[in-house]
Write a structure and sequence with these properties.
The chain is α/β, with parallel strands linked by helices. The protein is about 30% helix and about 25% strand. It contains 6 helices and 11 strands. The strands form 3 sheets. A 7-stranded mixed sheet has the order 5-4-1-6-10-7-11, with helices on both faces. Strands 2-3 form a two-stranded antiparallel ribbon. The chain has a two-stranded antiparallel ribbon with strand order 8-9. A hairpin with a 2-residue loop joins β2 and β3. The protein is globular and about 55 Å long. The mean pLDDT is about 95.
Length: about 240
């Protein structure tokens, strides 16, 4: 695939959709489940395609996946479909290396988002981008922890209450300069550092990351009961 992204000045979205979604108990990956008249993946991708400032979307899907190409969004000229890897971080790094080969400038903002979060709002995307531009730091969308948190031991015995005022729930998108994100993920891979998301790779590499408090309805579809809840949030959005 010959792609030239050397003139991109806005932002790029990398959407991770290479997981199997086994906890859904469905007969297909959760990104292809129906939601509000479309699929989960279509709704998520369209959120980014419709956001001013996002110049292209890199969509990471399972290797040999054919379902993606049945969706109209995969035919958009500014959507690039790339094979994922074994783990989420491998998949994201595949997308970043595609961007590198396409000549994406180092300073371009790259937003990494989970395909299973179709309810992210445009206002939160704007808030995230604005904070990133102003702070010049990597940022992530997050939400306050509202429940009381208890630390327990291996037997389930309660040990103490955890101070929730110092905690947030980490959401996506997570945004950083292209060069910083690529370097951090490669460093984590080469040094065998276990990372679960982009922020953990960035902090491991020494970057200070800012949490941007957004809406709590930016849920990740993981279990069957999440689908009707996501549909409710999407209807409220309209």
């Amino acid at each position: 695939m010959l792609v030239d992204l050397s003139t991109v000045k806005g932002a790029v979205a990398v959407i991770a959709a290479a997981g199997a979604g086994t906890r859904m108990g469905a007969d297909k990956p959760k990104q292809y489940l129906p939601l509000a008249g479309k699929t989960v993946l279509e709704i998520t991708v369209e959120k980014f395609l419709g956001f001013e400032g996002i110049e292209c979307v890199v969509l990471i899907v399972p290797p040999n996946d054919q379902d993606c190409y049945q969706l109209p969004v995969a035919e958009k000229e500014n959507v690039y479909v790339i094979d994922g890897g074994e783990r989420r971080t491998d998949s994201v790094l595949n997308g970043l290396m595609f961007l590198y080969d396409a000549g994406l400038p180092d300073d371009v903002a790259v937003l990494v988002h989970d395909a299973a979060r179709p309810c992210v709002s445009k206002s939160d995307l704007q808030k995230l981008i604005d904070t990133f531009r102003k702070s010049k730091q990597p940022c992530l969308l997050a939400a306050p922890v509202v429940d009381t948190l208890q630390e327990v031991n291996a037997k389930g015995d309660v040990k103490r209450v955890v101070d929730r005022d110092k905690l947030v729930r980490a959401f996506t998108p997570q945004v950083a300069r292209f060069i910083d994100l690529k370097t951090a993920l490669i460093k984590a891979r080469d040094e065998g550092v276990p990372v679960t998301d982009e922020v953990s790779a960035l902090t491991s590499a020494g970057h200070k990351v800012k949490a941007v408090i957004g809406q709590s309805n930016n849920i990740k579809i993981t279990h069957p009961e999440d689908l009707p809840l996501a549909e409710y949030y999407l209807k409220q959005e309209k």
